[in-house]
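User: two proteins, same treatment. go.

Assistant:
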Amino acid sequence: MNINTEEDFMDLKLVFRIAAVIFLINAFGIIFMPNTFFEMAGLTMSDSLKTVGQFLGITIVFIALLSWRIPDIAGNAFSALGQLWGIGNLLWFLMVSYHVMTGQAGGSTAYINIALFAVFAVLFFMYSRKSE
């Protein structure tokens, strides 16, 4: 395979798959290391936050599975689902940014996720248009 352009290397299917891996990394951090994960975000750990975090972690595992499988099952809706995933990343970007601006969250967890959500929103929108 001869990779001549960025388009040959990256496509919407790959964006979904990379997003799935990132989701899993976050999910496992929340499930298995909730103290570290939340304290890195500037949140005070409690038993209640740990419980909510573990439920959130399992929910993120489910989102990762969806993200991984969408390219294989979406059919004609693939581009539309890519755009929907872009909107979701934009909404997550806005929410975490709001939490940082209001001082409710911070640290590396928040800032890394803001950057990832922004990058994925752009990639999903960009490659959804190319796959139409």
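Protein 2:
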Amino acid sequence: MSNDDVRTVERLIDGLNAKNVAVMDEVFTDDAVMEWPQSRERIRGAAMRREVYSRMEVLPRISPRRVISRNDLVVAEAQLDYDGTAYDCVFVFEMRDGRICKETAYWATPFEPPAWRAALVERM
């Protein structure tokens, strides 16, 4: 596990929670790619990332559950809260020279499980 890579991702989360999108220029490489598979979107490079984030009406509050690292990958499990609308999220960060060169983010809305599973599972 690379503690430096984990700290880089934690710096990103802390900065975004402080509504400081400029932190992205510190932690992402200039040629970094962001991919959002659910919406089938790709953001390529610092200029496009800045433009996308400058137009966002609301930044979510990010509550990390777990951040783990192995080799050049950091995976963060988190909950995103967009002013009361929550999403569970997994971020996969690919690292290069201590900075993020690719982010892939997966979001899902929580849902109530079917009653038939209640006796078979633990609720979190």
